[in-house]
Amino acid sequence: MSISKAPKAPHFNVASPAPYIVSIETNRPSKLNAFYTPMWHELKSLFDFFSHDPETRAIIISGAGDRAFTAGLDVTAASDSNTSALSSKKHSDPSRKATVLRRHILELQDVISSVARCEKPTIACMHGYAYGLAVDLSSACDIRLCAPDTKFCVKEVDIGLAADVGTLSRIPKVVGLTSWCKEVCLTARPFSPEEALHNNFVSRVVPGGKKELLEAGVELAKLIASKSPVAVQGTKNILDAAHGRTVEDNLNYTAVWNAAMLQSSDVERAMLSGLKKRVPTFEKL
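That's the Secondary metabolism biosynthetic enzyme sequence above. Prediction below.
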């Protein structure tokens, strides 16, 4: 694996639990894995790297410790008058201050978008507190699993703002712009794993604790990694491209994509493996 070549990220534990699989674990358990400034840059650098890494076929993201996937934004750090864009006194003019804030928000949005645009399938394994930013981050992942102890919350209205780095744009695409979606976003009330499963926010509640959750995440990632990377990455790309397109437009996009990708040797290997009842192997991508 290319773990040794990955960007330095002191606030994340990066490992390879199985061939072609990368585990990225938020490593700030004493603060419930809450995010502050250095972590944003580190997370983006990791996803940008592994997105193009030919040794990587699936990525798992989780949180260190027993208490939280992430409790969201480190509010104490964010309210520091010396570093916060919100409390910056550099510009007294509202328009100029708004420009600074807009740039700051776009920068943070791009961090979460780096997860969404990652070429490799991403699996969020959530346990404990999954508040605020946890929903932004997991909504950007392809697949979401959780433990029975997970406590979800779109927390932002409780700290006086509309969620601005991804939740309000992505969660309606994940679960639909439903009454339930608006309820949890408008009230900031916590919701349970069972409620998350019922409303299609997670695909599975894994029985047991964090250990069993991560084992399930690794097994799922291994299954994905066993498939043709040309087929897997193409499938993810086409599914993501379907958002905002008509069926006809996406069918045309699919035809153009597969006009190139069907020429891969992976197609013949996969077909022959089925006929000869053997496990196929595929080249890196």
